[in-house]
Design a protein that fits this description.
Length: 391
């Protein structure tokens, strides 16, 4: 499996510069707007190289496994192919939201069907009828939902490469301990491709993953975790590496709905974005998130393999970890505020009003000395106000 992971790493490393040049020629560039976490227009679509790395790693598996008996990664390959193509079309030409969601739902159905065929019925931990129902109902929702959650979280340098690398490594360990060759191989290939892309995206981003990359990595993780659960591996062990991304996306979605906001529009209110708003650099946020993902992966594995007391303790530790992360921006702001001062709340710059001297929190800070600046009241003119860019 090490050979497959190494192949994925090397192919991704070699093809990312090619993808960078191609995206520039296609003018697939992420420009800057008030929701951006970058300061320079940057090409997107680097995930093409990640997908190629995954394909290369899977092709090497028969040689690395010996005797041509390779783990079954067909569900992951189908997911990478279908969701990757949807993401590539979005990066290059754009797809209407409703059409994109429809295509994703269809892709989720296909992946779930392939997954159901690939997992032997006698290997399932539940009755076959229940497994079939779960694959038909829960599978498409889970795969499509997590792919979009992963895409929502791909907003600062290196964060999604770190998530995929650490989670891939965690799934490799889980697969080894539970005798799941698919998780071992899939996790190694996924981690290798993410590590191969990282030098081009962290700490300075020369190219972004784009939708093709976030969909590819998200689909890989979603399929591997669902495959692991259907094979009888405890839920905590396979979902713990994804817990931080799920918690951030879920909490943000609930908060926006409760505020009456258009939850499906672009925004800057994820916890990791708020951490950059209070002055943390991309490097610090990404390193923190990666460390927390590694910790949650270990706790999930401990909960899955320990006795009842250990399981409860590990689950409580996971809860504390997630709650602490979600409240980190507010706690940092509170710690920095002078005594007696009103506690400011990190806000979505897109929700900025017209009040004079509005407080603007910096984002995408690249230095190590964060500061808060004030934006003067804009000059009033007789013309209509500019419309916000909602990309």
């Amino acid at each position: 499996m090490i050979g497959a992971g190494a192949a994925a790493l090397l192919v991704t490393l070699a093809t990312t510069p090619v993808a960078l040049g191609a995206m520039r020629r296609l003018a697939a560039i992420d420009d800057i707007n008030e929701r951006s976490s970058h300061q320079v227009p940057t090409p997107r679509g680097g995930g093409i190289a990640v997908a190629l790395g995954i394909f290369a790693g899977v092709l090497v598996l028969p040689l690395a496994s010996g005797h041509g008996d390779a783990p079954d990664l067909l569900p992951m390959i189908v997911g990478v192919t279908l969701f990757g193509l949807i993401g590539l079309a979005e990066d290059v030409g754009g797809i209407a939201p409703l059409r994109r969601l429809t295509l994703q739902a269809l892709a989720g159905l296909v992946v779930s069907a392939v997954l159901l065929v690939s997992v032997p019925l006698d290997a399932m931990s539940v009755p076959p009828a229940v497994a079939v129902s779960a694959a038909a109902l829960i599978g498409p929702l889970w795969v499509t939902g997590f792919v979009n959650a992963f895409n929502f979280m791909d907003g600062i340098n290196g964060i999604s490469a770190a998530q995929a690398a650490v989670a891939g490594g965690g799934l490799t360990v889980v697969g080894h301990l539970h005798n799941s060759s698919a998780l071992v191989a899939g996790g190694a290939v996924l981690a290798g491709s993410a590590i191969g892309f990282a030098p081009f995206n962290f700490p300075r981003a020369r190219i972004f993953l784009g939708d093709v990359g976030s969909y590819t990595l998200g689909a890989s993780l979603a399929v591997l975790t669902f495959q692991g659960i259907m094979s009888g591996i405890p839920v905590e062990a396979v979902l713990a590496p994804l817990l931080l991304y799920l918690a951030d996306t879920g909490a943000t979605l609930v908060r926006r709905i409760r505020r009456g906001e258009c939850w499906y529009l672009p925004h800057r209110t994820h916890t990791y974005q708020q951490l950059t708003d209070v002055g943390w650099t991309h490097t610090r946020v990404t390193a923190t998130v990666a460390s927390l993902i590694a910790a949650s992966s270990g706790l999930g594995l401990l909960a899955a393999r320990g006795h009842a007391g250990v399981r409860v303790t590990a689950d409580l530790a996971l809860l504390v970890l997630v709650v602490g992360y979600l409240n980190a921006p507010r706690l940092i702001t509170f710690a920095r505020a002078p005594r007696g001062a009103e506690l400011p709340t990190p806000a979505d710059p897109a929700q900025a009003g017209d009040s004079p001297r509005e407080l603007v929190l910096p984002h995408q800070r690249q230095g190590d000395s964060p500061r808060i600046t004030e934006r003067p009241e804009p000059a009033r003119t007789g013309g209509a106000p500019d419309q916000a860019d909602t990309r």
